[in-house]
Design a protein that fits this description.
By secondary structure, the chain is α+β, with helices and mostly antiparallel strands. The protein is built from 32 helices and 29 strands. Helix content is 50%, strand content 22%. A six-stranded antiparallel beta sheet has the order 2-1-6-5-4-3. Strands 9-8-7-12-11-10 form a six-stranded antiparallel beta sheet. A hairpin with a 4-residue loop joins strand 11 and strand 12. The protein starts with a helix and ends with a strand.
């Protein structure tokens, strides 16, 4: 089989239930729609005989088709099927009570072949619709009992539809009285069967599974038995239909010949009677009597005596009438109260009478210049009477001969037995169903119809030429088929025994083969189960896929056949959703690394492939995989293993280089990666722009060599912290490659899942110019005029910024609040000029003994503050305070006098300060107050937070 055909069959097999549901829904919607439109428009449209389906059935099938098409939306599906139980229940109540609620007889009456109760739904159809509606509500059963009920709701309409079609094909109502209760038009049966198949598709949708061996063997056995029964039934029904049709055709041929013969005999009888009447009319003595009668001179007694002489055996009455048809003279008697009479077309004024025997009455008109006279003659049809008596019905198969005439209002039929008075039938309604009716149009032939007594009959009809009368011969079909019914019952028992014997033989012959197949399948299933167990226990991801080929046989995709639990975990898949999916679509949807070219290469070459490939580039948790691809049938098997730990070291460099080179080359910062040996492994192009050194000349050098000894020593503590796994930040003034620069730096460790640190990332911003501009601006608007230090307002603004900055960087700062001891005494004894000189000297000493990054300000008078930033510990702040106190204690020359200087200091130390500037200043002031209370020339440190 070509691969394209195999793939098409496979897709069709996988989607068979959805296709079955859709096809059934479309078929039922169209079938019911055509039938309903035909009844409403009074025309037959769509499939042949669709109009035989009654309107209520058509509506129900259309609604069920709509429900099948709405299967993806369960609420809408149940809403569409909701009217079915009501309509079907009303139909069953109609059949039980005889009422007419949903028959709509006026819509169905226009059909000439309508049944006795037009529009009535067959009870078995209503029962099948109830089962179908119940099946909709039993979908997706939660327990076994509901599943069994759903199976019954599927099988019942299927069997009822098949029974209705069988009854239709073999005319079961002719064999058994109950046959009319199950007989359905073929399209109604087809609609129920298709609806049952659609319901079966709904029940099986979403329950696809690999069939077990026992299920397969059971399916083979049941299928073989079902085929045997179906073939036997089909053969028996076909033989029955052929034999019954042949018997009916032969009988119709005989009946047609009989009725034609009888019509010919009656026509010959009429000709003889007409010949006798004509000869009598043409006699001179009769002409003389008629002449006298036309002139009003007839002697009644003499005329009666003369007519009595003409009377014969077959003539029962002879009379001369005047123009008004009043008898003037009469011989014999005339039938005045016949049981049945019918006018004839020819000769004029002729009548056929019946009163236990047939009478033929004619009138001959004699016209003269003086007036008109008539000769009435009534004759017995003895020969026809004998034929009628000889062919009178004596058993069920004798049939009934009918001789009928008609006038403008009634069809008048004569009896075949003396006890019957005949029939007078209005010419209206379903008169066309009567066997004799076509003969009045001059036609002859046979037909199968329902007569006036609502009996199912076959008949032959023949016109009596030129008379306006017609013959028919009919036999009840039930009587005709009675012998066949007995033979059919006997044959059915024999066929049933043969089917049972055939099933037993089939089971005996196929049993060993099926057992062997079952054993082989069980062994295969055991091997498959062992394989699945091993695959599930495997720590590697394992996938089996089959190849999908294009029209030229080239591999264009793969379909997932199997994947184990590790594959689900590795790729974030769900097995139920993934099996059966195309690989390219699955890989794109779930972001799975796609190695389609490798898969295709293995398919083309047939050689296995083993290679290491990256599954993902993740700067934090990179993953490498090793996969083995093996050709298996018309597909491949893939084994995937995580080899991340093996490839981690080299992957780190590759990933970092790719990431840093892509992202960091464009940012205005020095970005690099330094390994555990403090050697540069990566740097961005900013090094070239800032220092004029290409990155290639930096990579591989040690930090000590690149920075220089002085700058290296300045950042060495931060390097140690970063290699210990801590993220550190700093701001420093450093001498780098011939120029003094103020930089802000951040070291970020590269720490792995096991806790080891393989290096750290370096991010350094050159803020020299920004710092210079900042200092320049601050000096212009925020400096104290006497000392050149920051004033209170500028310091408070700066303090707010530094607090936020240190909080974000998780760093410490310390605020020193200083007050010159006994400053008022200097002012009072030496004057304000000496006091101002002391303040300037004090400010200069503060400036000289703090870092360039620290901030010094004069709040007013002899009050000063110092903000120490970027502290790494409390001891650093204490060291700076003690250094300041030592510097401030040096004597100073004021107005030619040596003066001893000292200061009291309050220190507020804060780690990750989350405080307002005013509150921090208040805490430092509290420390100052405590230092003064302790005797001055000392400090007190208070911790914040």
């Amino acid at each position: 089989m070509p691969p394209s055909v195999a793939r098409s069959l496979d897709r069709l097999l996988r989607r068979r239930h959805a296709l079955l549901i859709g096809a059934a829904g479309i078929f039922l919607a169209l079938l019911g729609g055509f039938a309903a439109a035909g009844w409403l428009l009074r025309i037959e449209i769509g499939p042949p005989e669709s109009i035989h389906m009654v309107l209520s059935t058509a509506v129900c099938l259309s609604l069920y088709g709509a429900a099948l098409l709405l299967a993806p939306w369960p609420r809408l599906m149940r809403l569409a099927a909701a009217p079915l139980p009501l309509i079907a229940s009303l139909a069953l109540l109609e059949a039980a009570t005889g009422q007419r609620w949903i028959d709509f007889p006026s819509l169905h009456a226009w059909r000439h072949d309508a049944p006795p109760l037009p529009g009535r739904m067959v009870p078995t159809t209503a029962l099948a619709l109830l089962f179908l509606a119940a099946g909709i509500w039993l979908l997706n059963p939660a327990d076994r009992r509901r599943r069994r009920a759903l199976r019954i709701c599927t099988l019942a309409p299927l069997l009822l539809g098949a029974l209705g079609a069988t009854a239709y094909l073999i005319n079961l109502e002719l064999l058994y009285g109950w046959g009319s209760s199950v007989r359905m038009p073929l399209l109604t049966s087809a609609g129920l069967i298709v609806a049952a198949l659609g319901l079966d598709g709904l029940s099986r949708r979403g329950r696809l599974r690999h069939p077990r061996s026992q299920d397969m063997v059971r399916a083979v056995s049941s299928t073989a038995a079902a085929l045997l029964v179906a073939l036997s039934l089909a053969t028996g029904l076909l033989v029955y239909r052929i034999s019954s049709d042949a018997h009916q055709r032969s009988l119709l041929t005989v009946m047609s010949y009989s009725v034609r013969q009888r019509a010919a005999l009656l026509q010959a009888q009429f000709k003889l009677a007409d010949s006798d009447a004509r000869r009598l009319f043409q006699r001179r003595d009769v002409q003389s009597l008629l002449e006298s009668a036309s002139q009003g001179k007839l002697d009644a007694s003499a005329a009666a005596a003369a007519l009595a002489g003409f009377n014969r055996t077959s003539v029962t009455g002879l009379a001369i009438l005047d123009a008004a048809r009043r008898p003037l003279a009469q011989a014999g008697y005339f039938e005045t109260r016949p049981r049945q009479s019918a006018p004839m077309l020819s000769p004029p004024n002729a009548q056929l009478l019946w009163n236990g025997h047939y009478l033929y009455r004619t009138e001959q008109v004699y016209r003269t210049s003086a007036g008109t006279a008539r000769l009435r003659l009534e004759q017995r049809l003895d020969m026809f009477d004998r034929i009628v008596q000889d062919t009178a019905p004596h058993d069920a198969l004798s049939g009934i001969f009918s001789l009928c005439g008609r006038d403008e209002r009634y069809l008048r039929c004569f009896s075949q037995t003396p006890a019957d008075k005949g029939s007078t039938i209005p010419i209206a309604g379903n008169i066309h169903r009567f066997t004799v009716w076509p003969a009045f149009s001059g036609k002859s032939g046979t037909m199968h119809t329902v007569d006036f007594s609502r009996r199912n009959v076959i008949g032959a009809y023949e016109p009596v030429t030129g008379t306006g009368l017609a013959f028919s011969y009919k036999i009840k079909v039930g009587d005709l088929l009675a012998p066949i019914r007995q033979e059919l019952e006997t044959s059915a028992l024999i066929m049933l025994a043969m089917v049972a014997l055939g099933a037993a033989v089939l089971r005996t012959r196929t049993g060993p083969v099926l057992k062997e197949v079952l054993r082989s399948n069980q062994m295969a299933e055991l091997a498959a189960e062992r394989f699945r167990t091993a695959a599930e226990a495997n720590m590697d991801a394992f996938v089996i896929m089959e190849a999908l080929r294009d029209a030229d046989g080239k591999v264009e995709d793969f379909r997932v056949v199997y994947l184990n639990a590790e594959a689900e975990r590795m790729w974030g898949l769900r097995r139920a959703d993934s099996i059966g999916q195309k690989w390219l679509t699955l890989a794109e949807t779930h972001a799975i690394p796609n190695h389609f070219d490798s898969y295709k290469r293995v398919m083309d070459s047939g050689q296995p492939l083993s290679e290491e490939v990256p599954r993902a580039f993740d700067a934090v948790h990179p993953i490498w995989i090793h996969h083995e691809i093996v050709h298996a049938g018309d597909g491949i098997s893939i084994s995937v293993r995580d080899i991340t730990q093996k490839k981690l070291a080299e992957l780190d460099l590759v990933l970092r280089e790719a990431l840093l080179k892509t992202v960091t080359d464009s940012i205005p910062a020095l970005v690099s990666f330094v390994d555990a040996d403090q050697r540069y492994r990566y740097c961005n192009k900013t090094y070239m722009r800032l220092f004029g050194i290409p990155p290639e000349q930096v990579i591989g050098r040690s930090m000590r060599d690149f920075l220089g000894e002085e700058s290296y020593q300045a950042v060495s503590p931060y390097i140690e912290q970063a290699l210990q796994g801590q993220t550190v930040s700093f701001e420093k003034e450093m001498f780098l490659h011939g120029s003094l620069r103020y930089v802000e730096g951040r070291y970020i460790p590269q720490q792995h899942a096991n806790g080891t640190v393989s290096g750290f990332y370096v991010m350094v911003w050159d803020i020299t110019q920004a710092r210079a501009r900042e200092i320049q601006l601050r000096s212009q608007v925020s400096l104290d005029a006497m000392t050149g230090l920051l004033n209170r307002a500028a310091f408070m603004d700066m303090l707010d910024d530094e607090i936020k900055h240190h909080y974000l960087k998780r760093q410490s700062l310390a605020l020193l609040f200083l007050d010159i001891d006994r400053f008022k005494q200097v002012n009072d004894t030496l004057g304000h000029a000496a006091g101002d000189e002391l303040i300037k000297a004090f400010a200069q000493r503060l400036r000289q003994n703090v870092r360039g990054t620290d901030h010094v300000a004069r709040l007013g008078g002899d009050e000063f503050v110092v903000l120490l930033v970027g502290l790494d510990a409390e001891q650093t702040a204490i060291a700076v305070v003690e250094k300041l106190m030592a510097a401030l204690r040096r004597d100073i020359d004021l107005s030619g006098q040596t003066h001893h200087v000292s200061a009291s200091i309050g220190v507020a130390y804060a780690y990750m300060p989350d405080i307002t500037p005013a509150r921090l200043l208040e805490i430092a002031d509290q420390g100052l107050y405590q230092a003064k209370a302790a005797g001055r020339d000392t400090y007190r440190l208070l911790k914040v937070g």
